Amino acid sequence: MKVSVIVPTYNREAYICQAIESVLQQTMKDFEIIVVDDGSTDNTEEKIQPYLQNLKYIKTKNGGPAHARNIGMGAATGEYIAFLDSDDLYYPYKLGLQVAVLDKFPEIAMMYTEISAFDDSGYWDEYHLKKYHKNAYVRENINYENIFSENVLLKYAGLDSSSWGNKIIYMGNIFDTYLQHLIVFTPAAMFRRNILKTIGLQNEHYWLSEDFEFMLRISRNYKVAFIDIPTYKFRYHTNQISTSRNKDRIHNTIETQSNLLEIVTTLGLNDREYYLQHKDAIDKRLADLHKALAIPLMAKGKDPKSARIHLGKSAFYGQPEHFLWILTFAPYMIRRLFIKVLSILKKY
Question: Which pTM value belongs to this model?
Answer without folding.
Answer: 0.92
